[in-house]
Amino acid sequence: MDVESCTELNEFPQMLPPPPGTFVDREELIQHVGDFAVSQGYVVTIKQSKRDRVVVLGCDRGGVYRNRRKPADESSAERTRRRKTGSRLTNCPFEAVGKKDDGLWILTIKNGTHNHEPIKDISEHPSARRFTEREIVLIKEMTEAGLKPRQILKRLRQNNPDLLSTPKHVYNVKAKLRQGNMTVETIRNSLQIMRNFKSLRPQKSAVRNNYLAVTEPSWRQCNPPRVPNLIGGRFVDSQSFVSIDVLNPATQQVISQVPLTTNEEFKAVVFAAKRAFPLWRNTPIATRQRIMFKFQELIHRDIDKLAMNITAEHGKTLKDAYGDVLRGLEEVEHACGLATLQMGEFVSNVSNGIDTYSIREPLGVCAGICPFDFPAMIPLWMFPLAVTCGNTFILKPSEKDPGAAVMLAELAVEAGLPNGVLNIVHGSNEIVNAICDDDDIKAISFVGPNVAGTYVYARASAKGKRIQSNVGAKNHAVVMPDASMDATLNALVAAGFGAAGQKCMALSTVVFVGGLNPWEDKLVEHAKAIKVNAGTEPDTDLGPVISKQVKEQICKLIQTGVDTGANLVLDGRNIVVPEYEHGSFVGPTILSNVTTNMECYKEEVFGPVLLCMQADSIEEAINIINRHKYSNGASIFTTSGVAARKFQTEIEVGQVGINVPISVPLPFSSFTSCKPSFAGDLNFDGKAGIQFYTQVKMVTQQWKDLPGSSGASLLMPSS
């Protein structure tokens, strides 16, 4: 560049070029350049593109004005004046280049200078007056109906009050439609390109920001729809050809398909989460909390959609599905008040002029692996707390019912969660192994079956990761002879058969102290009153279990109990639900005279099956529970304070209920488990959950004038 042109460039206020970097895909790179350009007062366009290799971006004022008529007697100065008044083009030298290398797009700035003034009001830029695809289609329809440009513009502004176009712009569109230069198909094709590069078009209103919603993304257009990955803030269809069908348990119809995330996509997810972390960790905690407040509001808004999706994919009744979402919502509410819980400690003057204090800092990229039993609550156990602490997060929902997790992620993005802070992958063993092995993932939260949880804990901890793992459960209740009959029976039936017994805190075993005889007939009577039907049907108490395979496993464990001496008091294996004959239903089932050596007692049934045992004393009942390998929770039903106190003191479980069947605490208290039911050092929720997603940094500071010394002291500092 010559000296004269350099002098010309320096006459204008400096407009900074976008910072170079590496991006997951081409569209993200273009969005990064476009958004930064608008913030500096210029607009970029695509100058050259080779779709899969390179894209060259330039200022929209690049190029030169070409006046085809050049009078011979016109001076050079006059031609320059005509060029400047007749065109916005100034031959701006700005140029940014994006190239694909090893699966990622690398941005470099070839020339970061401009030779023009910045745009004072970006809304005045011509690109801000472009019509959306939907608006052009409406213009065509209203033109055919005989409306004039001003009338058309008035109606368009009813839907979009911030529309900047003028009647002249409407007339130009009408002219192109009339001349055949613009067809609806052409509009769709050209605006498809615009949608891919939406950052190149300055936006002013929320309505215009949402013009992408005019057409559904490709993953929703499939039949059945494909569940997308969330990578760097974008919901994208996987390139995988292998997928898992998501079935409605009541009808066995395919609702959607879950593609198995490829290895390249997983690397892109980790890269996006890692790249988002530095900026997110430095975001003020108050800002992160505001996003959670908005997220909470959006969950309330869409709770009906979430509940319907959970019922369709999981099978639980709508009442249970609402409860699933509401318990998860409590986790978001807890995250809204995280600032005070993250406060460190300060000790002044620990030594002469020396203070010490602690800081809680985020870990980095964290991951969560979810089970199928709570499609909304378990994801909300994990990522709201993790991201509000300043981490970025990779969520792997259950492949059996991933819809609610994806819907929650959409709401989190709508609430303002920045790109890359929350990401979603799908799959089974391979993706779990990738999560355990990746060095950039610092912590893993896992909830699921015992075998998988033990494997994840061993593999992830071997890589030096922090991990919390809630696994198998066998929850007991002890019923004392003095317990209130009606209240206890209602509690046992609700906790034992609710959600078809498919929850980690389901009450699966009851130990009757003093004998079962006074209770058995009444218990069967209450169980028979339960209405079994599809979860969407009114007044349904019990829906189907999640799959045919799960039903077969439940029936197998029931049969092993019968074969080894248990009494089948109530059999729900062969229940048939009218209009849902193909559904995976298991009715309420009660086995009595169960002993500790039976397979149905040793293993987690995870179905609507209640096992009844007997003990001669409370001591014997406590010993039965303490000897079991799983120990999430246990409850006692009694009117004796002495018995209750003895039980809570001697029982060896994480959560104790007294006249409460499911002793699950609220989010501000930790979800505690012990023995093989939990692996790790820090539990979910409460202070323990915050400690899990943060690490403590101790700072010791000294602010004083140090006296001069002839040499360094080698003594240990002390007070």
Automatic annotation (TrEMBL):
Basic and acidic residues: which segments have biased composition? 70-79
Please state what class of enzyme this protein is.
oxidoreductase
Task: Extract one GO BP annotation from the record.
Answer: thymine catabolic process
Its Enzyme Commission number?
1.2.1.27
**Do you know which InterPro entries this protein is assigned to?**
Ald_DH/histidinol_DH (IPR016161), Ald_DH_C (IPR016163), Ald_DH_CS_CYS (IPR016160), Ald_DH_N (IPR016162), Aldehyde_DH_dom (IPR015590), MeMal-semiAld_DH (IPR010061)
Q: Where is the Aldehyde dehydrogenase domain?
A: 235-699
Q: Where is this region: Disordered?
A: 66-87
Q: Which GO terms describe its molecular function?
A: methylmalonate-semialdehyde dehydrogenase (acylating, NAD) activity
Q: Name one GO cellular component term.
A: mitochondrion
Assigned keywords, A-Z: NAD, Oxidoreductase
- CDD domains found in the cross-reference section: ALDH_F6_MMSDH
The protein's matches in Pfam families, at most eight in alphabetical order, are given as: Aldedh (PF00171)
Family of this protein: Belongs to the aldehyde dehydrogenase family.
Its name, as the record gives it, is: methylmalonate-semialdehyde dehydrogenase (CoA acylating)
The organism named in the record is Lithocarpus litseifolius
